[in-house]
Design brief:
Structural class: mainly alpha
Oligomer: single chain
Number of domains: 2
Number of strands: 0
Largest sheet: none
Radius of gyration: 21 Å
Strand content: under 5%
Number of helices: 3
Length: 84
């Protein structure tokens, strides 16, 4: 870990501590940084998935024991904001 000295807005820090449920300033800052890094990684993963053409045709029959879930409308449902 790096040790740094930084000036922070105390109101923002207190607010973040309440929202994050952390006990110390260090824990609050580290948790906020971890969350932002995770959001960036998720953005990169979604961008990678979005760049790949997927074909779910036949997905209902793809699994054993009587079939699986029909995913053929997944892209349409996602763009409509529908959650299954």
């Amino acid at each position: 870990m790096a040790r740094i000295t930084v000036d922070v807005n105390e109101e923002w820090l207190d607010s973040a501590r309440r929202v994050l449920g952390t006990d110390t300033k260090v824990a609050t800052i580290n948790e906020a940084l971890r969350i932002q890094a995770t959001k960036e990684l998720a953005r990169q993963i979604l961008a990678a998935l979005d760049s790949v053409q997927m074909d779910f045709t036949g997905s209902a029959d793809a699994f054993g024991y009587g079939g699986g879930r029909d995913l053929s409308g997944l892209e349409r449902d996602a763009s409509d904001g529908e959650v299954a």
